[in-house]
């Protein structure tokens, strides 16, 4: 990256000098991952054959299993990713940006090398792995979309965890009472909006520090749902905590596509709603008047106020919209994943969704892809347990969080968020 820096000559004339900056975080991250894989292959070698199952039993088009020699394939792919890491280092050292395709290819090859090592003498169901990754990423994607809208409009939404949790509780309660999962889904959105109302009121009207309000709301919702669970749901479990869940709906023809068909087109209503929401929010944020106003309020509220935009009102209603979207993610827990509500069942996923917002550069599509990455890491941890790899189970449980740290520290540390995020606006 090159920037222009003013310098003064002896006669007092101001000149612009070119200053080059090296961005080494991505190359360093790639190098660290390469060294970790090399250490794993050296100190815990595995031999035999690794089998990848590409087909699905329910698919119309069957694909054969693919078996590869474990050690040879793992080391060959390791050499390739080492070359990619070296290329990234060379580009960064010469003040050039590391292209996105290089990082993506590195990630795909790195995962393939790791799976080849882990699956020695075992089987990797590729379709099942991807299907589970999409399923586990649904709350993260909805939470990340809520975080993107909130921060783009100038309010840091740390309360994603609370919105997910109250959404899950509301969905379970209303779906159990009415026997209708769609009513539960609407209830989840209302639950997310209620949390957002409190966040917006304190952050926008009373000018309380937004991060503190978000943390307090997470604790409040955790305690409230825990109390209601013990006092209301447990004694009346059959009536109030047996939600009717959504079933899968396969899209004809598309669901028969090998590998990706069952993953993308044999899902529940909430997953399809996730696809639509990501597309609509991405389009609306950059192509509509609503998106222009939202971004203006989050970047330069004084300028937005000058042209007649009511800054605080815009923030309030968009934070509420963000809560409704995050609430849909909470509904996934009780209307799809688990047949009943449980205490603290979101397990901190709201904070990972917040990391996905940062890793995704406050962009809806990138944040959704980041959510998919973290969902894949979670499902990979489950697969590694089944494959009985020599990695201790405690380290496997750490895997999603390690991926989150590497992603945010390695790739997102060189970007900035919306300029007015977290800053209350007081009209002069």
Question: Which tags fit this structure?
Answer:
single chain; 428 residues; mainly alpha; three-stranded mixed beta sheet; two-stranded antiparallel sheet; 7 strands; globular
Descriptive overview:
This protein has 428 residues and is mainly alpha-helical. It has 16 helices and seven strands. 66% of the residues lie in helices and 7% in strands. Strands 4-3-5 form a three-stranded mixed sheet. The protein has a two-stranded antiparallel sheet with strand order 1-2. Strand 1 and strand 2 form a beta hairpin. Helix 5 packs across helix 14 and helix 10 crosses helix 11. The chain is globular, with a radius of gyration of 24 Å.
Provide a compact summary of the structure.
This protein has 428 residues and is mainly alpha-helical.
Task: Please give the structural blueprint.
Elements: E1 2-8, E2 14-20, H1 25-43, E3 49-53, E4 66-69, H2 70-93, H3 100-118, E5 123-125, H4 126-152, H5 160-178, H6 181-205, H7 210-233, H8 237-240, E6 249-250, H9 260-265, E7 266-267, H10 269-287, H11 289-299, H12 301-306, H13 311-337, H14 349-359, H15 364-387, H16 393-411
Parallel strand pairs: 3-5
Antiparallel strand pairs: 1-2, 3-4, 6-7
Subcellular location: Cell membrane
Transmembrane segments: 26-44, 72-93, 100-120, 126-148, 155-177, 183-204, 211-232, 269-286, 316-335, 341-360, 367-389, 395-413
InterPro entries: ABC_transp_permease
């Amino acid at each position: 990256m090159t920037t222009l820096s003013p310098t003064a000559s002896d006669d007092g004339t101001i000149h612009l000098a070119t200053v080059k900056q090296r961005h080494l975080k991505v190359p360093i991250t790639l190098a660290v991952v390469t060294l970790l894989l090399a250490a794993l292959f050296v100190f815990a070698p595995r031999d035999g054959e690794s089998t990848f199952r590409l087909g699905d039993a329910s698919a119309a088009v069957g694909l054969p299993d693919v078996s590869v020699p474990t050690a040879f394939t793992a080391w060959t792919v390791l050499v390739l990713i080492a070359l990619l890491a070296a290329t990234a280092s060379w580009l960064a050292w010469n003040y050039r940006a590391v292209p996105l395709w290089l990082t993506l290819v590195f990630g795909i090859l790195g995962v393939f090398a790791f799976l080849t090592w882990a699956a020695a003498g075992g089987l990797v169901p590729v379709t099942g792995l991807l299907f589970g990754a999409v399923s586990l990423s649904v709350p993260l994607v909805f939470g990340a979309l809520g975080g993107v809208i909130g921060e783009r409009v100038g309010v840091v939404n740390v309360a994603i965890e609370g919105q997910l949790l109250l959404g899950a509780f509301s969905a379970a309660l209303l779906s159990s009472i009415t026997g209708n999962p769609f009513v539960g889904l609407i209830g989840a959105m209302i639950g997310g909006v209620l949390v957002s109302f409190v966040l917006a009121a304190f952050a926008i009207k009373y000018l309380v520090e937004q991060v503190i309000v978000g943390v307090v709301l997470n604790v409040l919702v955790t305690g409230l749902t825990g109390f209601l669970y013990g006092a209301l749901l447990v004694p009346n479990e059959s009536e109030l905590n047996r939600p009717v869940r959504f079933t899968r709906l396969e899209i004809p023809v598309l669901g028969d596509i090998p590998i990706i068909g069952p993953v993308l087109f044999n899902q529940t209503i909430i997953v399809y709603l996730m696809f639509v929401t990501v597309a609509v929010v991405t389009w609306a944020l950059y192509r509509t008047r609503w998106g222009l106003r939202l971004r203006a309020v989050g970047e330069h509220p004084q300028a937005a106020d000058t042209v007649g935009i009511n800054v605080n009102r815009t923030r309030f209603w968009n934070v509420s919209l963000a809560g409704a979207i995050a609430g849909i993610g909470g509904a996934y827990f009780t209307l799809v994943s688990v047949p009943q509500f449980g205490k603290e069942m979101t397990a901190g996923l709201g904070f990972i969704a917040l990391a996905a917002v940062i890793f995704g550069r406050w962009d809806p599509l990138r944040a959704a892809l980041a959510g998919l990455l973290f969902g894949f890491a979670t499902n990979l941890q489950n697969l590694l347990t089944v494959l009985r790899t020599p990695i201790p189970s405690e380290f496997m449980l750490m895997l999603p969080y390690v991926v989150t740290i590497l992603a945010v520290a390695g790739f997102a540390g060189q970007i900035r968020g919306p300029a007015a995020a977290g800053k209350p606006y007081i009209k002069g």
